[in-house]
Amino acid sequence: MGKGSREDYLLRILRITEEEGIAKTNDIAALMNVSAASVTEMLRVLAGDDLIEYRKYRGVSLTAKGLAQAKRIRDKHQIAERFLMDVLDKEQGEAHEEACKMEHILSDESAKSMCRIIGAAEMSGCEVCGTECIKNASGIRLNRMSTGMAGRISHLKCDDAEKIRKLVAIGFVPGRSISLVNRTTNNGPIIFRMGESNIALDQDLASLVFVHVDQ
């Protein structure tokens, strides 16, 4: 049985136990669209890996290890789905289907990078980022940097998908080196240097980019 199948079971068990407290074999079978016998076989495997507590006729619950793994997969799905919608402009249905596949193969580092691009600051208790989540990320807003300051882009923070797409298209992605070259006026565009190019960015967009400034 593949990794994806095992993780799908953990996700379904998480969903049921969050609503009902205990997951019954028949409930899991209905959600997975498989036979009760297939569910029982998988439950034995998951129990052997200490991912669930399983007692025949009494139902199933996730162990601490299984709960953490299930939440991590769910968080990766949510990050991938929002990335596909906000950055790649996919429709919700298509993004969901693709995220269902990506959640099983997406590395923690890639998920963190996506999270920092989409500015997913509202994911309370995210198992992917943990204490490194964007909601705890530090940095100075780009529009508050002084001329001559330099650093690396930490993350973007915005609920407007169109603005996120615009920043990414220009090249404002986490990890890139950037320096402030000049300010035109107090409220006018700010000139930044990234790579070999100078880029003018208005104050509104600049305020959505956070930078770890070089010491």
Helix count from the secondary structure assignment? 8
Q: Given the C-alpha coordinates, what overall shape results?
A: elongated
Using only CA atoms, what is the Rg? 22 Å
Strand order of the largest sheet: 3-8-4-5-6-7
List the helices and strands and how they pair.
Layout: H1 3-20, H2 25-32, H3 36-48, E1 52-55, E2 59-62, H4 64-86, H5 92-102, H6 108-118, E3 140-141, E4 150-156, H7 161-170, E5 177-183, E6 190-194, E7 197-201, H8 203-206, E8 209-213
Antiparallel strand pairs: 1-2, 3-8, 4-5, 4-8, 5-6, 6-7
Helix pairs in contact: 1-2, 1-4, 2-3, 4-5, 4-6
Fold and architecture overview:
There is one protein chain. The chain has 215 residues and is of the alpha+beta class. The strands form two sheets. Strands 3-8-4-5-6-7 form a six-stranded antiparallel beta sheet. It has three domains: 3-62, Winged helix-like DNA-binding domain superfamily/Winged helix DNA-binding domain (Arc Repressor Mutant, subunit A), CATH 1.10.10.10; 76-136, Diphtheria Toxin Repressor, domain 2 (Orthogonal Bundle), CATH 1.10.60; 140-213, SH3 type barrels (Roll), CATH 2.30.30.90. It has helices at residues 3-20, 25-32, 36-48, 64-86, 92-102, 108-118, 161-170, 203-206; strands at residues 52-55, 59-62, 140-141, 150-156, 177-183, 190-194, 197-201, 209-213.
Summarize the structure.
This protein has 215 residues and is α+β, with helices and mostly antiparallel strands.
Which labels suit this protein?
Arc Repressor Mutant, subunit A, 3 domains, 215 residues, alpha+beta, SH3 type barrels, elongated, Diphtheria Toxin Repressor, domain 2, six-stranded antiparallel β-sheet
